[in-house]
Structures are given as structure tokens and as C-alpha cells.
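Hey all, quick one. A colleague (J.T.) asked me to put the fe (ii) ion job into the tracker so the inputs and the C-alpha cells live in one place instead of scattered across chat threads. No bug as far as I know, just bookkeeping. Sequence used:
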Amino acid sequence: MDKPTVFGSNAIDKLTEAYPEAPVLLDHQLGDHPLLSNAALAHLADAMRPVDVEYNRADLPVGIDPADVPDNGLSVIETIENIATNGSWMVFKFIEQVPAYRDFLHQTLAEIEPAVRNVTGEMMKLEGFIFLSSPDAVTPFHMDPEHNILLQLKGSKTMTVFPADDEELAPGTAHEAFHNGGHRNLQWRDDFAARGKAFELPAGKAIYVPVKAPHWVKNGPAPSLSLSITWQSEWAYREQYARAMNATLRRFGLNPAAPKRFPHQNHAKSLAWRTINKVQRTVGR
Ligand SMILES: [Fe+2]
């Protein structure tokens, strides 16, 4: 592997200590990368599948129904160039679909592999996302199904992260609906606020977010550019299979227990679901 250029040994040590269940702040040295300039992002938007370039209004409450999120009425280029003033939130999803970004993503994730491989094994399904957002933009309360490191590149954000094992924040039915194609946003209640921990992310800081740890994000007073680098693990997949098994059990009128968090491996339910799924596919042929 090439010499690390994005994360120093101190960041790798901190991630090693926290991974995979604790959120942790890390230093990074990504700085002004040529693939992340406004001009490069405009080219990227052209090179990507249109469905993966998403942008909308950003002056949203912390809890909102995804169907109620309003369009910003602008083109991609206008959104990028006037992000300081147009009250928008923009994401480039799955940047690995463009070769230069795929190489960049793989190199960056290779740097942190020493903190990951011994704990959750091979890093799988490597995916990258770029977020551009106006001052004070809010990303509503939600969860993501991947291991994620968010690197802050310009401007600042506050990310409030909640425990991944609190089934009141993210009920079993919400996990199951999500894996069945539902939206990642979670229902917010004001009394949840005290359960979260706020992490300040100025440019040069990154945060590791555990799989399914609910969070919401508030931009600081300047436009924000950040990069999210994500991966899956066997453990994360088993958690999802166990959720799918729970959905099946719930259809039979049962109220199944949640999958357990790492280091529990959820082998039994994951295997049960994979077996049922295989039988269904065989019978359905
Ligand atoms: Fe997220």
C-alpha cells in the first residue's frame, strides 16, 4: 500500500480503539483535493447517473417526512456555484461509479483497513458520497446501514450521534421497513435529544459513525463540503439478515427480539433468514 496521506497513525490508533461500536473523532489531511473542487464536482455530476445526484431545500426541521422535502428549483450547476446563498443540500451518491473517484475512495479506505480488518474482516461494498450544503442546513434524524467515516473538508458541521442499540430511537419495525425499501429517516421526538452526543466537525476533522447509529447533522455558518467513505462487513450484513428474519417473524404475529450489537454475531437468525430466502427462491423458480 502507498504511504497514508489522508489519515495519520494517530487517527488509525483512535479508530482501532473505537471500532466498530463507538463514534469517534479523527484528524484527516485531505485538504483541497482536485477531485473535490467546484469545477470537478460539476464534471462529476455530468458523469454520474442522474438519479444519484440529489439536491433539495435545506432549511428543514430535524424530523421530516421524506415525501415533504421540497425541491430547490435550481440546476445542478447553480446549486453548486451558489451553495453559499441558495439554502440547499446536495449529495453525490456512489461516486465510485466514476473511475477516478473509485480509485480515490479505494486508496483512502485502504489507509484505515489496519483498524478494521482484524475486527470485522474484509471491507466490502466500498461506497463514497459527497455532500455539499448551505449555511445552517439540517440533515434530518436518520440511520445508515454502513460503517461510515465522514470527512469535513470545508465549513463546519455538528453531528449528533445516538446509541445504535436504543430500540426506542429506531424501532425494529423501522429497521425492517428500511431494509424493505423504506426511507432511512427516523421519527423524531424532542425527548430523544438528551440521548445524543454532539460532535463538532471543523474542516480537518472526520467522524466514524457505527452501523445504524441514528444521527442528525446541522451545518455551521459557512457552506459545507464533506466526503463520506463507507464499507460493509459480514457483521453488518448479518445484522440486516436478522432484521429481515424479524420481519418474517412479525408477519406471523410474533414480536421478535432485536439483533444484538457487536461483538454478538447474530449467526442463528441470519442463517435462518438466508435458509428461508433460499427455499423461497428455489420454490419460486
Ligand atoms: Fe448519515
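Adding what we noticed when we looked at it: The longest strand covers residues 124-133. The mean pLDDT is 91.
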